[in-house]
Design brief:
single chain, nine-stranded mixed sheet, globular, Spore Coat Polysaccharide Biosynthesis Protein SpsA, Chain A, 2 domains
Length: 293
């Protein structure tokens, strides 16, 4: 199995180099890395990538800036193989990542989504567990792993709290092309895509073996869009849409989870102090609206 590693790029050069180096260090050499530069103003990342001399590494630069969602859609368009991961340009693969996900796919070829084990690192690369990730760990399904999940139980679990780590997930390429990333869900596009696949009958394989480091830091899209409430507007729209879908499917427990979205409300509550400190009345109103409706 050749794994397409699609890396949308716009960020710090040092983190980017760490991410690419972690791909080059894979114990299983059967991968293809495609870096899609969303018109980053510094040419240094592209020059460095071009200097690597590895035929498996491809560097492309968009003609115009497409934004987060647009660049993800461009990455999906460029996929050539049957399985792909949309890796963050500031994350790290452990040396056994490709080997482990290839093994999981061989054992469960019908799984549309493969979520391997993940650890969280900070901006400096140190392992840590902030509140959001402690909550994710508690919400993540328990039991022997690897475990195949699907249907209403998986949808309900993700709606209660999205415990997946999008940049580490391996996807069936056909599912990515079929559902893609819909405009309007730029921040919650991972949850939107997973729910689209699950409602269509797709399954997720969940594993515990840690083979990926997800970097959580203040410059991430979700961190930047939290205090101003933008993220929660998208979440509310997605939860409302999903509640209607679950109702039509008679997935009543999933419908209830979508309407309550408890961890999303709690997350909005944790962002309120920052909105107050910033003197942002629009952000404050957006957060309160998400908490109460």
């Amino acid at each position: 199995m050749t794994l397409d590693i699609m890396m949308p790029f716009y960020g710090r050069l040092d983190h980017f180099r760490e991410a690419v180096d972690s791909v080059l260090a894979q114990s299983d050499p059967d991968w293809r890395l495609v870096i899609v530069d969303d018109v980053y103003p510094d040419p240094a990342p592209g020059e460095w990538a071009a200097s690597l001399g590895d035929p498996r590494v491809h560097y492309l630069r968009n003609v115009v800036n497409l934004g987060v969602g647009g660049n993800f859609r461009e990455c999906v368009r460029l996929i050539e193989n049957d399985r792909a991961v949309l890796m963050g340009c500031d994350d790290r693969m452990h040396a056994g990542y490709v080997a482990r996900v290839a093994e999981l796919v061989r054992e469960h070829p019908d799984a549309a989504i493969v979520q391997p084990g993940v650890e969280v690192i900070d901006a400096e690369g140190r392992v840590h567990r902030p509140l959001a990730d402690r909550v994710k760990a508690r919400l993540r399904p328990r039991g022997p792993k690897p475990e195949l999940l699907g249907g209403e139980p998986l949808a309900r679990s993700l709606l209660i709290g999205n415990w997946a780590y999008f940049p580490s997930v391996v996807w069936q390429a056909d599912a990515l092309r079929r559902f893609g990333f819909r405009p309007g869900y730029e921040v919650v596009q991972d949850l939107q895509l997973m729910l689209d696949i699950v409602f269509d009958g797709g399954s997720m394989l969940l594993d515990d073996e840690v083979v990926f480091s997800y970097r959580r830091h203040a410059g991430s899209v979700s961190a930047v869009t939290g205090p101003d409430g933008a993220k929660f507007g998208e979440e509310h729209a997605l939860f409302s849409e999903t509640a209607a879908r679950a109702h039509a499917a008679r997935w009543h427990r999933a419908e209830r989870a979508a309407r309550l979205h408890p961890t999303s409300r709690l997350n909005a509550a944790t962002e309120l102090p920052a909105a107050l400190r910033a003197g942002d009345p629009a952000g404050r109103r957006a957060l309160l609206r998400h908490l109460l409706r």
